[in-house]
Design goal:
5-stranded antiparallel beta sheet, elongated, hydrolase, 7 strands, alpha+beta, single chain, HotDog_dom_sf, two-stranded antiparallel sheet
Length: about 140
């Protein structure tokens, strides 16, 4: 399994009057971590477009365990769970200092051929090649 970690500082503009991050901002934190995750094996969103594919998120689940607070440094772990037919990425948001688990989530993305707008029923070769270049083999 391939895993990356991204640290994020919860900013003031993301919190409410109780200094708790609004639940909708968690999606943004996952996106920041997912962008770094994809860039780590040279398949950023720009590379996706250049390869002729879009990868929309088609499913997402977030389990809020404990609130994120203003000024808290959190670590977002991204782990590749599936890649053959879709991208399923699992996330754990933890307190960066203590390691305490605060949130669990996953996203599922599918490849869409930009030329035909058709959903692909398996991941394109370019994804497999990017993973192999990074890892020396395909995960699994």
């Amino acid at each position: 399994m391939y895993t990356t970690y991204t640290d994020i500082l919860v900013p003031f503009h993301d919190v409410d009057s109780m200094q708790v991050a609004w639940h909708g901002h968690y999606v943004k934190y996952l996106e920041v971590a997912r962008c770094e995750f994809l860039e780590s094996f040279n398949y950023s969103y720009q590379a996706m477009l250049e390869s002729g594919y879009a990868w929309p998120v088609v499913d997402m689940r977030i389990k809020y365990i404990k609130p994120l607070r203003f000024g808290q440094r959190v670590r977002v772990q991204c782990a590749l769970r599936e890649w053959e037919y879709r991208l399923k990425i699992d996330y754990v948001i933890s307190d960066a200092a203590t390691g305490e688990r605060l949130t669990k989530a996953y996203t599922i993305q599918v490849a869409v051929d930009l030329a035909t707008q058709a959903m692909c029923f398996e991941s394109p070769l370019v994804l497999r090649e990017s993973l192999t270049r990074k890892l020396g083999h395909l995960p699994g």
